[in-house]
Amino acid sequence: MAPNLSSLFLADATSAEPVQIISPKSEVLSYQPAYQAPKKPVTKSKEPQYKWDIVWKNVLIFILLHTAAVYGLYLMFTRAMWQTNVFAILYAAFTAMGVTAGAHRLWAHRTYKAKTPLRIFLMILQSAALQNDIHEWVRDHRVHHKFTDTDADPHNSNRGFFFSHIGWLMVKKHPMVISKGKTVDMSDIEADPVVQFQKRHYILMVTLLTFMIPAHIPWYFWGENWWVTWYVTIARYTLSLNFTWLVNSAAHIWGTKPFDKNINPTENKFVAVAAFGEGWHNFHHVFPWDYKAAELGNYRMNFSTAFLDFMAYIGQAYDLKTVSEAMVKRRVKRTGDGTWEEKECSGKKEERGHDHEYGEYVWGWGDKDMKEDDVNDVMRYNQLKDE
């Protein structure tokens, strides 16, 4: 049925104001319709607005540091004595143990216990690595595990390789990092006398252990040119930093996910070699309380585990926690990407739906959110009485 047009005109005609239905010809010819852009709906985000705040002092430091490191690498290949190069590699390996076996597996994740001599030794090595004091390192790392790849993660890999590798150190922390960081338990670290000693004397320790002592040893003992040994020291330190940062960047972007396909951390062999066994990152984020930080049964790509096993052999490391084979298989079947089954189970798969909730993120042994079944299924080696 056609609409009743006459009723529309009548409604206008009977209104309080007279309506001119037909406009003069001059008005019609001169009429220009005004363009109105479509209005976008105004929505207020409930999330706090975050503006990148660049710390230019850090940017300048990193530029100078990497420039000097490139020159140091050039000297290593052209002028440095072979003894100087070997010493730099060995020193880098030992300082790496302070980070991997010390700050990471001992203090951040509590995957094992260590007697006082080993704790002091690892604290000294971690100071020589110059990657912030143990207290700050552990706090950032526990927040990273608890809120992986969210705005509360200090080096959120969803912001790209550069940010997760080094960019996060060039800007002020996201407000969520600070607010969520306050919810992570740090009471064990704050009560540790070894950690507190380092915190009080950190500037002096890193000045001596990171730069002055390793630079003077080649000069004093085998007559290396001071200019050469100083820049080789800078190169050694800068390379060590970048190898560690690869765990935050490359190992969250490239690789396989045999244990949980729903998270960003991956198994990355190159990072595993460069970071002394820390590149088996998919396993590590699923089972952060395992002292091996990997499922491997050998030491070829996990030198840090070899170091800890030796420390356990001589009685300095004890109560080493690791994941049972049954727990690994259950998790692989539930959330793996299939690469583990293809290698270990002849391609057999069991597909199950899974959404990763915050409740499944734990920073390590002692996290209040760790599931009781996981606690009961953990295997321990070299159990000794506490000192």
TrEMBL record:
<feature type="transmembrane region" description="Helical">
    <location>
        <begin position="228"/>
        <end position="247"/>
    </location>
</feature>
<dbReference type="GO" id="GO:0005506">
    <property type="term" value="F:iron ion binding"/>
</dbReference>
<protein>
    <recommendedName>
        <fullName>Fatty acid desaturase domain-containing protein</fullName>
    </recommendedName>
</protein>
<dbReference type="Pfam" id="PF00487">
    <property type="entry name" value="FA_desaturase"/>
</dbReference>
<comment type="similarity">
    <text>Belongs to the fatty acid desaturase type 1 family.</text>
</comment>
<keyword id="KW-0276">Fatty acid metabolism</keyword>
<feature type="transmembrane region" description="Helical">
    <location>
        <begin position="202"/>
        <end position="222"/>
    </location>
</feature>
<keyword id="KW-0275">Fatty acid biosynthesis</keyword>
<feature type="domain" description="Fatty acid desaturase">
    <location>
        <begin position="82"/>
        <end position="288"/>
    </location>
</feature>
<feature type="transmembrane region" description="Helical">
    <location>
        <begin position="86"/>
        <end position="107"/>
    </location>
</feature>
<dbReference type="GO" id="GO:0004768">
    <property type="term" value="F:stearoyl-CoA 9-desaturase activity"/>
</dbReference>
<dbReference type="InterPro" id="IPR005804">
    <property type="entry name" value="FA_desaturase_dom"/>
</dbReference>
<keyword id="KW-1133">Transmembrane helix</keyword>
<keyword id="KW-0444">Lipid biosynthesis</keyword>
<dbReference type="GO" id="GO:0005789">
    <property type="term" value="C:endoplasmic reticulum membrane"/>
</dbReference>
<dbReference type="GO" id="GO:0006636">
    <property type="term" value="P:unsaturated fatty acid biosynthetic process"/>
</dbReference>
<keyword id="KW-0408">Iron</keyword>
<feature type="transmembrane region" description="Helical">
    <location>
        <begin position="54"/>
        <end position="74"/>
    </location>
</feature>
<keyword id="KW-0812">Transmembrane</keyword>
<dbReference type="InterPro" id="IPR015876">
    <property type="entry name" value="Acyl-CoA_DS"/>
</dbReference>
<keyword id="KW-0560">Oxidoreductase</keyword>
<keyword id="KW-0443">Lipid metabolism</keyword>
<keyword id="KW-0472">Membrane</keyword>
